[in-house]
Design brief:
The chain is mainly alpha-helical. The chain is built from 7 helices and 4 strands, in the order E-E-H-H-H-H-H-E-E-H-H.
Length: 254
């Protein structure tokens, strides 16, 4: 009798057991089970989770877990200062609001449609930018509570045991600086991808159906080129509509 993890802990089955129920795992479901077995609240929560990780785990990992008085940023929490109850053990509502607001603002500013599959890369960049901003806010709060940019620390000892001191920059300040640089790099990348898409759209490459129609039109007109008895191709002038904005290959004869 061997334990079989598919049937749960403590359940044993014979090594050559037959007629056992088949364990079916649904790969299309987050739980691996049929969604009909879940309550409406469970389905709603899972739907929000799957939507939040559509472009990566950064948005889901964003909001910190509320620890109330144990939170390292407790003194800066606007809920604490206004005597508002905090959801201990749940996602921080302050960071959740900030993440949602920043995501909407960047998506709108960049003209990103979250329902458009071709915008997946842009939305992923937005999520990464927002995640950097979330960490940036935490570092800023840490600096607000401990504003010392430099501190005197022991850097070593002499043979006689006397300590050597040196000034060390604040880790929070260094972390903040790195976050800002990463955020600006991601923002430049986002602007570059949006510019590339705009350039492609202006040339008629954004819509696949339009590209296909233009290619068919070019092929039709290229077939108008006549071939003489010696096999030479006579140059044929090909004109395209101005609104196609595609480059037409020229046909030359010998």
């Amino acid at each position: 009798m061997n334990s079989n993890e598919l049937f749960g802990p403590g359940v044993t089955v014979p090594e050559n057991a037959e007629n056992l129920p088949e364990v079916v795992i649904n790969d299309n479901s987050l739980t691996g089970k049929e969604e009909t077995a879940l309550t409406e609240v469970q389905r709603g929560n899972l739907a929000r989770y799957t939507d939040s990780v559509k472009f990566g785990f950064a948005p889901m990992a964003g909001p910190m877990v509320c620890r109330d008085e144990q939170c390292p940023y407790f003194e800066k929490c606007p809920l604490v200062r206004n005597k508002i109850d905090r959801p201990f053990g749940g996602d921080c509502p302050v960071e959740s609001y900030q993440i949602r607001q920043w995501t909407d603002q960047f998506s709108e500013a960049a003209g990103i449609n979250p329902e458009d599959p071709s915008s997946a890369y842009d939305r992923m960049l937005v999520d990464q930018i927002v995640f950097q901003m979330t960490l940036e806010a935490r570092a800023a709060m840490q600096l607000a509570m401990d504003p010392k940019i430099e501190r005197r620390v022991i850097s070593g000892y002499s043979p006689a045991g006397q300590p050597f001191y040196s000034n060390e920059s604040s880790k929070a300040a260094e972390f903040y600086e790195k976050l800002v640089k990463t955020k600006l790099r991601l923002m430049r990348e986002l602007l570059t991808t949006r510019k590339s898409k705009a350039d492609a759209a202006s040339k008629g490459y954004a819509d696949p159906s339009k590209v296909a129609a233009n290619l068919m039109e070019k092929a039709k007109k290229i077939r108008m080129a006549s071939q003489d008895s010696d096999g030479n191709i006579t140059a044929t002038e090909i004109e395209m509509d101005n609104d196609s904005k595609t480059i037409v290959p020229e046909v030359f004869g010998e």
